[in-house]
Every structure is written in structure tokens, then in C-alpha cells.
Structure prediction request, 189 residues.
Amino acid sequence: MRYSLALALSLLLGSSASAHIALRSPAPRTAEQKAGPCGVAGSSRGTNVTTYAPGATVMVEWDETIGHPGHYRIAFDDDGNDVFVNPSTPTDNFPSTLVDQITDRDGETHYTQQITLPAAPCESCTLQLVQVMTTQVPYNSFYYQCADIRIGDAPPGGDGDIDGGCSSGSGSGLGALLLAGLLLLRRRK
Prediction:
């Protein structure tokens, strides 16, 4: 039993250690991040949706877990198709881009960026965070995370707190796994 718990913890911690970025707010669709446009090839909208008011100004937060020279970009898709274009040069800018050229600050790991969402409601919107690494030639090394969002009134039965965003879903489960492991170890003594 002790070996099973150790194996589970090492797999869980080992997989999170390979991340380069970790979107904190709004909640990410998935922890995966290597395949575009949203971290996993063919990823689809999930149930972890954050609702915002039309035209809301919100704070996007993320952590850089492995540093790279480059910058960050935040883009928006209003129809749930996750159609985002990868930049091919440092100066590329696309209609879906909300903020580009967010400086990667060497030695800092926590980032925040204020954005203003579109005023038009949408049921299946997506925010995309991209870490653009400039150490690669050609200019084609990216890490992606997306957040499923909704722009509109609070959903029926919701708490109505949509200005700052309300998110449904859960965290990574690491705390619950550690607690379960401690309880198992205590029970064995």
C-alpha cells in the first residue's frame, strides 16, 4: 500500500513538474499545454466554465513554472471553435489577440494581466494564454492553455457574481491526494 501511494504521488508530481505555464484565473480547461490551440490536440470545451459580464475588465493570472526568454499573448475566441493563429514573428498580431508582447520577466514566476472582454454576449467563448519562446529558430515554440468562459448574465441558479467571474469546478486534487495519503499512513501506525 505504501508503494502504491508513493507511485501515485510521484506520477502526479512528476506530471505537474513538466508544465511551463499554469493558468490560475480563469480556471484552465486542462493542465496540458504543448499542442495548440489549447494544450491538447483536439481538446473540446469542458464543464469548468467561468461567467463574466459583457465588457467586463478582468484579471488573468498565471504562473511560469519553467522560465524561457520570450513573451506571453492572450487571445479570445467568441464561438467555441478555438480558432487561434500562432504567431510566426515577434510582431504578428491577429484580430483575436487581446494583449500581446506581455514581457517575460526573468526571475519572476507569477504574472497578472488586466484585459477587457468584448461587450457582445457569447455562450461558448475561449480565452487562450500562449507562452511564446524566442529561443527557438524558426519562431515556432509555444505553450498553450485555454479557459472556457461565457459572457452574459449569471446562469440560472448561479450566485450572480459575474463581474469578477465565478468558476465552477475543482482544483488539481493534489491536496485531497496528500490528505488521503496521510490518513492511510496514520491508520497503519
Q: What stands out?
A: Confidence is low (pLDDT under 50) at residues 1-17, 156-188. The radius of gyration is 18 Å.
